[in-house]
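Q: Hi! First time asking for a complex rather than a single chain. Here are the components, and I think there are two in total. Is that enough to go on?
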Amino acid sequence: MSLSAKQKATVKDFFGKMSTRSDDIGAEALSRLVAVYPQTKSYFAHWKSASPGSAPVRKHGITIMGGVYDAVGKIDDLKAGLLSLSELHAFMLRVDPVNFKLLAHCMLVCMSMVFPEEFTPQVHVAVDKFLAQLALALCEKYR
Amino acid sequence: MVEWTDSERAIINSIFSTLDYEEIGRKSLCRCLIVYPWTQRYFGAFGNLYNAETIMANPLIAAHGTKILHGLDRALKNMDDIKNTYAELSLLHSDKLHVDPDNFRLLADCLTVVIAAKMGTGFTVETQVAWQKFLSVVVSALGRQYH
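A: Yes, that's all I need. Here is the structure of the assembled complex.
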């Protein structure tokens, strides 16, 4: 399910529109992940707090969204572009890939909340596909 | 049996009390057919689903979206026994409609996105938790009678 040229353009365009709110959306998305899917907190046991809205969660959400934006710039070859991030996730973080889908869903919800008019079904499918491709690229080195 | 806090019941009731079934039902089903195009396999008799624009303009789809959303009313009225409330509907989807139960989850996700767009900042973390819990119970109940 790779992205068409039009969908790549749609993704770049929407992320461009989103850039002023990207920190908020990243922070909110991770907060919602740990709230709606509490099992995801298992990855953050080493933090002082992994509760929704807490400082470490918000900060990390912003970091993750930064990574997503970086991936938008590498949309034409995500596997190559995300090689070192993939190694990080495979050998150090070892996040179960199912969680990428859960976080993607939370990101889509936040995008929809903040940009109800712009997050049309056509934008939704393009972004969903992009996030899925991103997750695949992150899993590249898993096994 | 699923346990609901007073807060969760209040949140779910509040969402439904102001819900525009026509608008949200139509938007959710359309979004599902567009974002997950393989779900169109169940709508062969619904006319033109050629692209996003025709899907969103299709009156049969709009009507069906409304119908599906009203189906959630049963869960709302029987929150303490959603499992049995949907036993018959589950059999219908399994034996007559032959719908892959994974589709219930896909539609639920689209419904969540549409509700989030409608409620904006009102779709708080607490609201999303309660809403997704409600939908996951419904989805589970609808898949339960498959054999």
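A: The CA atoms of residues 12 and 131 of chain B lie 6 Å apart. Let me know if you'd like any chain examined more closely.
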